[in-house]
Amino acid sequence: MRDPLLQFTDKGIYCKQAGVYLDPWKPVKKALITHGHADHSRWGHHQYITHKDNVPIIKHRLGDIEVTEVEYDKSFSINNVNFSFFPAGHIPGSSQIRVEHKGEVWVFTGDYKVENDGISVPFEPVQCDTFITECTFGLPAFKWQPQAQVMNDINTWCAQNNAEGKTSVIFAYSLGKAQRVIKHLDTSHLKIYCHGAVYKMTEVLRHQLDLPPTHLITRDTTKDELVGQIVVAPPSAHGSPWMRRMVPYVTSSASGWMTFRGARRRRAIDKGFVLSDHCDWEGLLQSIEATGCENVITTHGYQEIFARFLREEKGLNAISERTQYEGENLDSKDSADENPDEHDQKNQDV
Length: 350
Description:
Order of helices and strands: EEEEEHEEEEEEHEHEHEHEEHEHEHE
CATH superfamily of the largest domain: Ribonuclease Z/Hydroxyacylglutathione hydrolase-like
Oligomer: single chain
Number of domains: 2
Strand order of the largest sheet: 7-8-9-10-11-18-19
Distance between the termini: 57 Å
CATH architecture of the largest domain: 4-Layer Sandwich
Helix content: 10-25%
Radius of gyration: 20 Å
Largest sheet: 7 strands, mixed
């Protein structure tokens, strides 16, 4: 019996035939990268291969790296193994990676969602034999409302806070979620102010996204400027001294975990908006069915529960594998979906 086309190792997902890794978590010679979040795109690899829209993101995060850019649906070969990138719909520049060798096709999703968020190239199902899927929200309890409805709720909340003379603080991961929220905020009467990490990443993405104006919060930004306006900040800013200039303010979190009321209380958040850059339960099932796959490997999230459901209820060959990917994190203010520079104290004041 020959080795599987992709293997889970202590460094990451490895294609032995090509000698390359997919989203490795330890330094390797050649890494194919699905997207720019810190748990999938790490520093230290000799060569990075990723979609062209992800190049400025990982260069901003990782500095001077050797990176090769690719287009969607354009095949390239490494040691007779064919690779191609397809839209994942997770965040701008995110991809699934298709791997083909001797008639066998595997697809690694990285992170993905099926709803068109207005800033990412929408998810595209890819036919395959084996599908490697995250299942961050792999329970039936997770069912997303349409984005338009959620954003209407956010804009109504912001308008109400403005009328009461309070600043609306929205916590959202600085790469992807923040720009998704910013894109759909009603700025007809309100201004958007940003934490340094959100502002910097938004500026990186402006060349590929049509976004409304945002204003950087600096040491010179006064409370009078902020009162009644909207502030977008990473979750790591919550409870920090940086928040003092927002008083009086009301806090909110845009996350799939806001499905659970206890998550909002645990994070000491005033308002929760259920908005995720990952698939809900139905999105996961629909995506798997659309691939026509027979084999499924579940990774980060409720992977063991989800794999068992796929075996017992869907008749698929499903197993779970442990990785170092994290996705949205229930128990922490910080997440690998954020960027490392968000935790640099200098960014609290710029």
